[in-house]
Amino acid sequence: MLGTGFVLAMLALVVPTAGVPSRGPAIAPAPATDGPAAALQALGRAYSDRSLEDVGALLTGDFQFHTTDARMASHFPDGIARDRELQVVSGLIHGVTRDGEVVMPAADSIKVTLDGLTEGPDPEHPDSTGHYRLVAVRRFRFDIRLPDDRTFESTSALHVFHLVRGDAAVRVPGQPGNANRWYIRRWLEDVDALVVALGNVEGDCDRPRPQPVRADSAEGGGPPPKSFRLNRRG
User: Is the pLDDT assigned to residue 69 strictly greater than 80?
Assistant: First the structure.
């Protein structure tokens, strides 16, 4: 998924529910991804190129996106699956029109910044570290410009991606199952905010509250800001 903020929450709620099936065909051959980090770099390029096909080619059939944005989380408590994710991406890239009225114009440009990547074993598959990997991105950011010169800037935040090798992935038609291909099966947005939110939930257990996750290899490791700004240029 793209990140937090009003524009993306609105897209998730206004785009038509009919559209790309969750295990429908990958519209284009998957970009070359010879490792987990390469798959994330390919994802960034796919958004920057405004290529819905390339984004879809990188997501597994069982892909899930999890957000800390209350507007989206209340509508998608179990996460956003591949079909809905691609509908939102399509709305961002191509715009959304309803009853002849433009609800959301197509983005003029999309810039993605990924910085401070840390790779490790996927804790959900400790016995298959060669097939499942986890990558933490200390600073993940979207900069989106619309035709009317409005810009949406998501501030840098820690995002965590679960990746799977092609020969173990739940693939859609058109996605190669080679061992040198990697796909994204889960995307956790703004993990620091998520952990803090979970720590604030009251329960019956006496367990200590979890602390925010930190990506050890990132520079300038202070907690990222959580705001989302709308600026009008000129």
Answer: no
Q: Which residue has the higher pLDDT, 43 or 6?
A: 43
Domain topology for 6-201+210-232: Nuclear Transport Factor 2; Chain: A, (3.10.450)
Q: Which of 194, 198, 196 is nearest to 186 (CA)?
A: 194
For residue 2, what pLDDT is reported? Answer: 44
Domain segments of the chain: what residues? 6-201+210-232
pLDDT of residue 12: 56
